[in-house]
Automatic annotation (TrEMBL):
<dbReference type="InterPro" id="IPR000587">
    <property type="entry name" value="Creatinase_N"/>
</dbReference>
<dbReference type="InterPro" id="IPR000994">
    <property type="entry name" value="Pept_M24"/>
</dbReference>
<dbReference type="GO" id="GO:0004177">
    <property type="term" value="F:aminopeptidase activity"/>
</dbReference>
<dbReference type="Pfam" id="PF01321">
    <property type="entry name" value="Creatinase_N"/>
</dbReference>
<dbReference type="Pfam" id="PF00557">
    <property type="entry name" value="Peptidase_M24"/>
</dbReference>
<keyword id="KW-0378">Hydrolase</keyword>
<keyword id="KW-0645">Protease</keyword>
<dbReference type="InterPro" id="IPR050659">
    <property type="entry name" value="Peptidase_M24B"/>
</dbReference>
<dbReference type="InterPro" id="IPR036005">
    <property type="entry name" value="Creatinase/aminopeptidase-like"/>
</dbReference>
<feature type="domain" description="Peptidase M24">
    <location>
        <begin position="146"/>
        <end position="348"/>
    </location>
</feature>
<feature type="domain" description="Creatinase N-terminal">
    <location>
        <begin position="8"/>
        <end position="138"/>
    </location>
</feature>
<dbReference type="InterPro" id="IPR029149">
    <property type="entry name" value="Creatin/AminoP/Spt16_N"/>
</dbReference>
<feature type="region of interest" description="Disordered">
    <location>
        <begin position="187"/>
        <end position="213"/>
    </location>
</feature>
<keyword id="KW-0031">Aminopeptidase</keyword>
<protein>
    <submittedName>
        <fullName>Aminopeptidase P family protein</fullName>
        <ecNumber>3.4.11.9</ecNumber>
    </submittedName>
</protein>
């Protein structure tokens, strides 16, 4: 992987050079990990002008939550208590006679930006913008392999839960059990806080599990994801508990399923982000549920669970091949409950079989 990380940093260095910047200071943890292989707590990465160097307050541990550092990358450990790695990196760039230093202004605090400016007053700061995030959009096959394993782990955890007795158990208990099962199957941890909603709570986006107990006839909606080697996937499913679904439950489920299928089928290279959103949204809107819809129908996943692209009505841009995204429409009826169906897929051209579905747990409306 050392060559992969070096190549990523080399591409960023070329982009900085083309923009007139001598070096780049990377402070956002996911971006540090993407370029360095690991992101120890508080670490920053200096790319160029001479060598690439990681600055951190403590030695990298190599633990799963940090990642495995590029062994060829130079590491500088700060000795003074309270020393800021970003300030140390800027000082090093100035010592290397850099003229312009690109920084991630969307991540730096105002105070930290001022500290970086003050340590090297001759060093002119420029905004790097989201250059690294844009570089992260298209995943290589090793990244996709990590996402595929994360999806398999999430599928396994969810499948085992569905085989257990659910009536009488609380949302909180089920969420904790799912997160334990993720780790048991090899995840570094959950990709995000697991959401379990029952009865009137079902179908809510990012519902925080409560002490409500599962009852016969409830909708049960679950949204979870696994973090595997830093890469995060997402899956959401809705079921009925203990009985034949009511007519209104079948009707609502079929509607959300149709919207989700429309969104998945729209995932082709060159498709506009907002067109994918529209494909799913129009199905729900035509049935009278437009006002309650979420701001977007999906988003990118990778080293973060919610990254670019955003599949939203006003989003600008078009999909590329090898971009992993979620498609996650849902409808919640206040006081009754609702349905969410969420998959993680990788955009692929039709010649390669179309979008690759990573999360494969059945989307049939099961009565558990």
């Amino acid at each position: 992987m050392s060559d992969v990380y070096a190549a990523r940093r080399g591409l960023l260095r070329e982009r900085c050079g083309a923009a007139g910047n001598s070096a780049a200071l990377i402070t956002r943890p996911a971006n540090v990990r993407y370029l360095a292989g690991a992101s120890p707590l508080g670490a920053v990465l200096l790319v160029g002008p001479a060598d690439d160097e990681l600055f951190c307050a403590g030695a990298p541990t190599g633990e799963a939550d940090e990642g495995r550092l590029d062994e060829r990358l130079k590491v500088s450990l700060l000795s003074g208590p309270g020393a800021d790695p970003a300030v140390a990196a800027a000082d090093r760039a100035a010592a290397a006679r850099a003229d312009f230093l690109a920084v991630e202004e969307h991540h730096l605090t105002v105070a930290r930006h001022r500290a970086v400016s003050s340590v090297a007053p001759r060093l002119r700061l420029a905004d790097l913008g989201t250059a690294v995030e844009q570089q992260r959009l298209v995943k290589d096959e090793e990244e996709i392999a990590c996402l595929r394993i994360a999806a398999e782990i999430a599928d396994q955890a969810l499948g085992e839960l569905l085989e257990s007795i659910l009536v009488g158990r609380t949302e909180r208990h089920l969420a904790l059990e799912l997160e334990r099962r993720l780790v048991d199957h090899g995840a570094d941890g959950p990709a995000f806080p697991t959401s379990v909603g029952t009865g009137p709570h079902s179908g809510r986006s990012r519902h925080r599990p409560s002490d409500r107990r599962v009852e016969e006839g409830d909708f049960l909606s679950v949204c979870l994801g696994a973090n595997y080697r830093g890469y995060r996937c997402e899956i959401g499913r809705t079921f009925v508990i203990g009985t034949t679904p009511a007519d209104w439950q079948i009707e609502l489920y079929d509607l959300v399923f149709a919207a989700q299928r429309a969104g998945r089928e729209a995932l082709v290279p060159g498709a506009a982000y907002r067109d994918v959103d529209h494909a799913a949204r129009s199905v729900l809107d035509s049935a009278g549920h437009g006002e309650a819809l979420a701001g977007c129908m999906g988003h990118g996943v990778g080293l973060e669970i919610d990254e670019d692209p955003q599949l939203a009505p006003t989003a600008m841009g078009k999909l590329d091949a090898c971009v992993p995204v979620t498609v996650e429409p849902g409808v919640h009826l206040p006081g009754r409950g609702g349905v969410r169906i969420d998959d993680t897929l990788v955009v692929r051209p039709e010649a390669d079989g179309g979008p690759e579905l990573l999360t494969i747990t059945t989307k049939e409306l099961l009565a558990l």
